[in-house]
Request: fold
Amino acid sequence: MNINATLIGQSITFFVFVWFCMKYIWPPIMNALHERKQQIADGLAAGERGRHELELATKRATSDMHDAKLKAGEIVAQAEKRATQVIEEAKQAARIEADRILVSAQASVDQEVVRAREALRSHVAELAVAGAERILRREVDAKVHADLLTAIQNEL
Reply:
């Protein structure tokens, strides 16, 4: 056996094997590796995009929460303002009603005063008639009459 012929045969077989592997086996393996590398890169990019979108969504949510809190504060302030306004309107209506009741009471008091005056006048008239009657029953004397008239005037 010749070492050279075996070595040359093995070399030729090795080169054919290498050529066969490079022609038919390496391209699918390299394509699979390239595709896997691309999938990993796409997955990492998608993860990075997802994280970035999550940060943006968090910022938007925070901004929306802040806006909602401001709007809620405005609504509360408007409600408080409206409540104060309603209270003031109720106070004003109560004042108007109190004034109306006061005017009505004053009118009632004025009517009672008028009635009392009328009653007093009729009583004074009765007293005057009674006084005149007393004067006429007594003797006619100017001094006595003057004293009696003064007493009647004091009663009025």
Notes: The two ends are 174 Å apart (CA to CA). The longest helix spans residues 3-137. The mean pLDDT is 87.
